[in-house]
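The instructor's notes for this session suggest beginning with a concrete chain rather than abstract definitions. Hand out the sequence below and ask the class to guess, before any prediction is shown, which regions might be ordered.
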Amino acid sequence: MEDNEGEGPRAKGQGSRGLGVGGWGLGVAGRESRLYTSGMVVSTLRRKTAVRDAEELEKRSARLLERLRPFLERQPGFAGIELRREGGGLLEETRWQSMADCRRYLREGAAAMVATISDALLPTAPYPNGAWLRESQEV
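After discussion, reveal the predicted structure:
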C-alpha cells in the first residue's frame, strides 16, 4: 500500500551514525534503516535545504534529532527516524508500526509540528528548489 502526500514548507535522539548516502546518516537509537521488520511502514520525506555546508548540515541534523525524538516517541506506533543526505538534498525517514499509525502522524498534526521544527533548524531551499515530497509505503 502506498500513500503519497506532498507537503509544503510547513510539513519533520541522541543521533547515532547510520548508513547514510553522501557520507552520513543520523538515526534514533542506533537503528539502521535496513533493520525493518515485516509490516512496518516507512514514510520518506525528501527536500532541499538552504544549508549547503556538509559539516553544518550534520551538526544541525544531530540537534534536530535531539529535539524531535521526545515528541516522536509520544506518537502512537512510532518506530524510528533517520536523517541523511541524498544528492543535494535531505532525506528523512520515519518508521511506523502500521499504515494507520503513519496516517495518524501525517493527518492529525504531528507531521506539521515536526516540519515546523525541522524548517527552523534546517531551512528549506528557496523557490524553485524548496519542494517537499513525501512517500509512505509498507516494507
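Then share the key points. The beta strands are 2-6, 16-17, 25-27, 41-47, 78-86, 89-96, 132-138. Confidence is low (pLDDT under 50) at residues 1-24, 28-36.
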